[in-house]
Amino acid sequence: MLNFELYNPVNYVFGKGQIAKLTELVPTNTKILLAYGGGSVFKNGVYDQVKASLPNHDIVEFGGIEPNPRFETLMKAVEIIRTEKIGFILAVGGGSVIDGVKFISAAVNFEGDEADILKKRILFKDVATVIPFGTVLTLPATGSEMNSGAVVTIEATQEKLTLGGSALFPVFSIVDPTVITSLPKRQLQNGVVDAFTHVMEQYLTYTHDALLQDRISESILQTLIEIGPDVVENPNDYKLASNFVWSATMALNGLIQKGVPSDWATHMIGHELTALYEIDHARTLAIIGPNLYRVMFDTKKEKLAQYGQRVWNIQGNSTEEIAEKAIEKTVEFFHKMGMKTKISENAENIEKTADFIVNRFEERGWKAMGEKQNITLEKVRAIVEMSY
Question: What global pTM score does this model have?
Answer without folding.
Answer: 0.94
